Amino acid sequence: IVHGMQLRAVQGMLDFDYLSGRKEPSVAAIHFPFAGNHYQKFYMGNREVLIPVFQKMAQALQKNPDVDVLINFASFRSAAAVSKEALTFSQIKTVAIIAEGIPEHDTRLVNKIAHEKGVNIIGPATVGGIKPAAFRIGNTGGMLDNIVASKLYRRGSVAYVSKSGGMSNELNNILVRNTDGVAEGVAIGGDRYPGSLFIDHLLRYEADPQVKMMVLLGEVGGVDEYDVCKAIQDGRLTKPVVAWCIG
Question: What whole-number distance in Å separates Cα of residue 143 and Cα of residue 78?
């Protein structure tokens, strides 16, 4: 479910769905509290599809019981409140928070609630994530020409995690030119208190048999990279890791 009337982002997600060979759109519904329930028209290839828009999040989730991801496009003013509302629903397992500049106290509270409930947080201040041939969050991967050039419509075997959303698009290009392509990529966001850390995603990749190699793109500041070093030393990470801290 997408929170916010982000029509261009939703259309971009459906374009990616079409390139990936999906038969049905990855976006089940849009939550927009400032208008009544209605439908919005989008395209998958040359086929028109209608995505329902719900005023109430509870109704959107009730009508779509298989949904477990919320993409939160709210501004920094209301992103924390929307995320906390989503965390009251047990079917939500992942929340992607796009906004940057959320007050740090609010971010830490959302992270605390999410960790207690076992919910994954991507962000804040993130472009999202991408799983080639499956699903992308918002504008991850860039425009259609970049998706085609980076061959993100089919899965490779290299997974990456990055702080920078803009540089993650460049990572897609670098990886497809030098490897068999991207298996999965996540931008954890550049704010001070990200909801998930490098090590969280690298451990996921370690457990994924389709991932053969991992890439980490960090930035100057913080100590999260040391957690990755410790995981390599104690054997929790055994696959090859290429890490680069820029800035």
Answer: 27
Give exposure, 67-81, as e/b (b: 16+ Cβ within 10 Å). Answer: bbbbbbbbebebbbe
Instruction: Give the model's pLDDT for residue 69.
Output: 97
- Taking the CA atoms of the chain, what radius of gyration do you get in angstroms? 18
| Stretches in the chain below the pLDDT threshold 50 | none
- Tokens representing 53 are 């828009």
User: Do residues 152 and 132 touch, judged by C-beta distance below 8 A?
Assistant: yes
Q: What is the pLDDT of residue 142?
A: 85
* pTM of the predicted protein model: 0.94
> Amino acid identity, residue 160?
Y
Instruction: Give the separation between CA 182 and CA 4, rounded to whole angstroms.
Output: 29
For residue 131, the number of C-alpha atoms closer than 13 Å in the C-beta half-sphere is 9
**Residue closest to 157 by CA, chosen among 129, 137, 185, 135:** 185
Cα–Cα distance measured from residue 140 to residue 69, given in angstroms and rounded to the nearest whole number = 15
The DSSP secondary structure of the chain, one letter per residue, reads -EES--HHHHHHHHHHHHHTT-SS-S---EE-TTS-SEEEEEEETTEEEEEEEESSHHHHHHH-TT--EEEE---TTTHHHHHHHHTTSTT--EEEE--S---HHHHHHHHHHHHHHT-EEE-SS---EEETTTEE-TTTT-SHHHHHHTTTTS--SEEEEES-HHHHHHHHHHHHHHSS-EEEEEE--SSSS-SS-HHHHHHHHHH-TT--EEEEEEESSSSHHHHHHHHHHTTS--S-EEEEEE-
Phi first, then psi: give them for residue 212, nearest 5 degrees: -105, -20
